[in-house]
């Protein structure tokens, strides 16, 4: 019996969301009185034994040409074998782009009940009950997993990374790796930029910016804050900004530490995707804008005047001006 | 080629979220129901576009739910699709629903199974991956683009910080999201045609749910907004730095 954590990586680097999953899995293992083990598929540049600092005792590192690109079907078959060989009782994924594809498939393959979008450790005082977000963050549900084995997909930015001093043993396993049925033909990845779903700070703007030509002041604030960019739905629909920046109930759901909303009214569908942000700052010239009701801090004023001042003040505080 | 589009029913995005029966059930009274936006705007519309380009394609819609779901099934048929299937069962959990869908795919011989990336009520995003696993089909999640050429699908999918294009041979399950198509409104001809399109009802296969909701709850309310004046942006940043500690 153990807790097995899937460790995801991109461009040779372990994703921040996976460090959250490892920290979660390690605490869960301690709670269950068992060991926490990680599994990483493919090639990475990092030293995996260092992952022990987040609390895993062992990391299984499996390399094979068929694992060089992410194929949900192949990864599922391999992870199921790892789970069986290591006697894993709970599988932990980050609910990120890979976890969203893998966790449901593993749930079926292992006949293990799934909680996707988990936001805290399970309550194991009476069964195995995991809290998750529902209705796009407007509510939560405590989901009871009734099967012997369990699969948890932990929401990104929902759990704090813990860093201690441990070292993990790195091991391999003999598994059967089938050939993938998908073939990657191109990859378009903006390097260096902060990823929206993982970002700790997000600067978002809406129709109040009047047009795509005005995004410079939004980008400058984002740069000063080391933030990812987001936007409201009409902004993406009008192609002022790419679809990948559309946040809300029908776009990307995010939970950063700080969400700055400029010229966004705060419609219920927008709030639904951003209401898990820890601190919300709203800048809007209309004092009646609904967003102020969901905000922690607000300024009633013109974005064209406020955003440049905001950027300057941030630079001062960060000591870069 | 046969496409199956899985359609879920969700409360309208402005519906009041409340619970009954000791917080174990969603309060449905007075709620307007809609087709889950990801299923309608992206999965269904993209299937319709593919059929417009290639009339030899057949589109079937599938819904797991009771008779009260028929209005939203008809609404989906008004957008397009040749016929609909309703599996007459309460959708208890993701696994149960996936098991019903997989059975329909098995007996119907579909080449392409489309789902939305998630439903906007339970936000599980589990159906596509579960159906694929039950059928041993490949699965592409979070797709933002889809094309089919002969027996090969080209799918664009979201990855952290970008997009990736993959080629996959049919049959395949694809989870659809924004970017794939533009939402449409049904026209009068579509609405008329939908009335006479076949809507078949089948009975569910046995499948044990793997999870159950023990209790719903609401997040704690915000303390209230701290308003600052427009000429005091420096104070806002100071508060974010020293009080909220997020800068
Ligand atoms: C089914 C459904 C799903 C939806 N899903 C989403 C979703 O996922 N995400 C989403 O964002 N929306 C979604 N919407 C749309 C949502 O209802 C709103 O229409 C949208 O969020 C409004 O975008 P906005 O705030 O940018 O624009 P507006 O509502 O037009 O607001 C612009 C705001 O900018 C302010 N403003 C204007 N000029 C200035 C200025 N110079 N300085 C300061 N402030 C200024 C105005 O006071 C106003 O409050 C959905 C709608 C439906 C029906």
UniProtKB/TrEMBL annotation, chain A:
It comes from the Bacteria. SMART domains: ETF (SM00893). It comes from Cnuella takakiae. InterPro entries: DHS-like_NAD/FAD-binding_dom (IPR029035), ETF_a/b_N (IPR014730), ETF_a/FixB (IPR001308), ETF_asu_C (IPR014731), Rossmann-like_a/b/a_fold (IPR014729). Signal peptide: none annotated. GO terms for biological process: fatty acid beta-oxidation using acyl-CoA dehydrogenase. PANTHER family: ELECTRON TRANSFER FLAVOPROTEIN ALPHA, ELECTRON TRANSFER FLAVOPROTEIN SUBUNIT ALPHA, MITOCHONDRIAL. Keywords: Electron transport, FAD, Flavoprotein, Transport. This is Electron transfer flavoprotein alpha subunit apoprotein. GO terms for molecular function: electron transfer activity; flavin adenine dinucleotide binding. Binds 1 FAD per dimer. Its cofactor is FAD. Residues 3-194 form the Electron transfer flavoprotein alpha/beta-subunit N-terminal domain. FAD binds at residues 207, 232-233, 263-270, 284. Belongs to the ETF alpha-subunit/FixB family.
Automatic annotation (TrEMBL), chain B:
Coiled coil: none annotated. CDD domains: ETF_beta (cd01714). GO terms for molecular function: electron transfer activity. Residues 23-203 form the Electron transfer flavoprotein alpha/beta-subunit N-terminal domain. Gene3D superfamilies: HUPs (3.40.50.620). InterPro entries: ETF_a/b_N (IPR014730), ETF_b (IPR012255), ETF_beta_N (IPR033948), Rossmann-like_a/b/a_fold (IPR014729). It comes from the Bacteria. SUPFAM superfamilies: Adenine nucleotide alpha hydrolases-like. Keywords: Electron transport, Transport. Belongs to the ETF beta-subunit/FixA family. PANTHER family: ELECTRON TRANSFER FLAVOPROTEIN BETA-SUBUNIT, ELECTRON TRANSFER FLAVOPROTEIN SUBUNIT BETA. This is Electron transfer flavoprotein subunit beta. It comes from Cnuella takakiae.
